[in-house]
Design a protein that fits this description.
Elements (H helix, E strand, L loop, with lengths): L3 H4 L7 H7 L2 H13 L5 H17 L4 E5 L11 E3 L1 E3 L5 E3 L3 H5 E2 L19 E5 L6 E3 L2 E10 L8 H21 L8 E15 H4 L3 H6 L24 H16 L4 E6 L5 E6 L2 E2 H21 L2 E4 L12 E10 L12 H20 L1 H7 L21 E2 L2 H11 L35 E3 L4 E7 L4 H23 L5 H16 L11 H10 L7 H4 L6 H9 L5 H55 L6 H30 L6 H27 L12 H6 L3
Parallel strand pairs: 1-8, 15-16
Antiparallel strand pairs: 1-2, 3-4, 5-6, 6-8, 7-8, 9-11, 9-12, 9-13, 9-14, 10-11, 14-17, 16-17
The protein binds adenosine-5'-diphosphate and magnesium ion.
Length: 697
Amino acid sequence: MQTVSDYFGSMVFDDRVMRATLSADVYRSLKRTIDRGAQLDISVANAVANAMKDWAVAHGATHYTHWFQPLTGITAEKHDSFITPAPDGSVIMEFSGKELIKGEPDASSFPSGGLRATFEARGYTAWDPTSYAFIKGKTLCIPTAFCSYGGEALDKKTPLLRSMEALNRQALRILRLFGNTGVKCVRTSVGPEQEYFLIDKEMYDKRKDLIYTGRTLFGAKSPKGQELDDHYFGVIKPRVEAYMADLNEELWKLGVLAKTEHNEVAPAQHELAPIYSTTNIATDHNQLTMEIMQKVASRHGLVCLLHEKPFAGVNGSGKHNNWSMATDKGVNLLTPGETPYENAQFLLFLCAVLKAVDDYQDLLRIAVATAGNDHRLGANEAPPAVLSVFLGDELTAVLDAIENDKPYSGKKKTQLKLGVDVLPLFQKDTTDRNRTSPFAFTGNKFEFRMLGSSNSIACANIMLNAAVAESLKQYADRLEGVEDFNTALHLMIKKTIKDHKRIIFNGNGYDEAWIKEAERRGLSNYRTTPDCMPHLLDKKNVDMLVSHGVYSETELRSRCDIMLDNYCKAVLIEAETMVDMAERQMIPAIEKYVSEICKTAILKKNFAPDISCDYEHGLVKSLSQSIERAAACTAELKEVVARVRDFCGIISEADFIRDEILPRMGALRAVVDEAETKTAAEYWPVPTYGELLFGVR
Ligand code: ADP
Ligand code: MG
């Protein structure tokens, strides 16, 4: 029998395959490109392309594709076969270095936010050699970046790579100041924990809301929800277990380090976490994971829901982005060290993150803003929409001691002098098990917990990397050339703590009192996507992102437009789906049931005139009122949806949708959900919450 180590990465053109199939010279040049971004010679590219093609064909591939991540949030691919006609009527399989390095998909249908007029529809894709090529089905997939002809990024990978480079540049400056000359690069690593729901495909197929929008737009609460907490870490049901086993195998073949799986809080909710890897690879792998999750589900008669809030009244799904910075020597810069210098360096990087999160709260909020995630943030199941950092009591006490020049209590009664003293050993704080902090330090990494389950993790990491790069830049600008490094360092760390301690919060983030306290501290609280998104273009944000070369101003403008446009489209599709379901399914179903009760009552009266029929009378009256209210709510919803056409600016359109459309959707839902509880089960036209949430056994 094949073991996991036999087939792990078998569909990946990884280092093992490169070594085995490339000549020593070609391998060395390619490694230089991968490790240091050196330019790749065309003859080397040809050799790599040829080896890739031979390997892929031997593994059953017939096509290749430049695999990229446009601003739709999902991945895109256009398949070309390797075949080239030979003079004798046969075909040979060919793939050139040019085809490997650059592609020119017709890009007119991808969102560009005005960056590219349709008459110049061509964008181009450029190979990202730092992420391995892989085979999916019968296609060799080459991870690529996607740009317009003018060089503007039309994807999420390009700015992500730029942000990693920005952080690398600034972190190296800091490390040099600490006398660290051997380090060649600093990379960020990410381990994203992915939540999802699994439901039965037959039931899914009966619900237009799930099909069109990924979430239920109607549905009365089932008698049992998540109140018993009996699902979290519970025994995995056989059908789900078979699914997970199959999913792991597919992911492992693709080199994805799928590691942990368990049931989540809500019924039918699960989580998968991989072992962390370099950010751009983690991002590619997370996109791939989401895709494979859905594909494998359909093989098992299941559907994998990645929407942030598929069901009202039970927890939604998010993604925890575990993030750290490490050198090419494998040293994690967020690990407290053992020598005074290492400690000081750790505190400086820690402070850089604190400052970054405080200075760019808005960018981090924007990075996770979608119509779907607006249902979670601040809803007592996910972090609030307010950013804060959890450090744990011990580390907070250390910072407090530094800020106030007081002895760090307990262990050692002396004042802490950075660069001279060793930090007291502090334990990883275990009090954060409640998971209410949006941004928590967990021993040697930060865990950013506001991401939605369907978000590309690229967005959050672009902003995080860029913001931390900016803190490090300011530190390096200040420290380079000072005479007394230790004193300057100490003062700077002190100043950071003083200026940014408002962002530290170790308490319960779900507590209403915290939101008030956060307001007093001046932290921003953007509840919805239209609230936060326009701040992407605030001068301080544009200046920072442009100065680090992460985005151009034009790119930011286009992204702001696209994100708001996506928000509007998502909600409008939901509104139209609700109208359709209400008018053509829910109201007719209630009518039919009412008519049936009326018939029964008449029959009863004819049969025995002394029967009261009070029950039937009351029910008919109540359901008829529901029908009238549902019809009125539907008409109102239709009317406001029609008014969207009058708007010409995307910001005012998004505001209108938030203020006028979403509340009316809520009103319609409330009426219909109430009627559902009074309508005989056999009349209800779609599977109920109970069936959806407890239907997979
Ligand atoms: P939990 O959050 O459930 O307690 P862990 O903290 O063990 O679980 O890990 C969650 C995720 O964090 C995993 O994907 C893991 O690989 C990742 N992780 C662990 N260490 C690091 C690190 N230094 N940098 C980035 N991610 C990390
Ligand atoms: Mg976690």
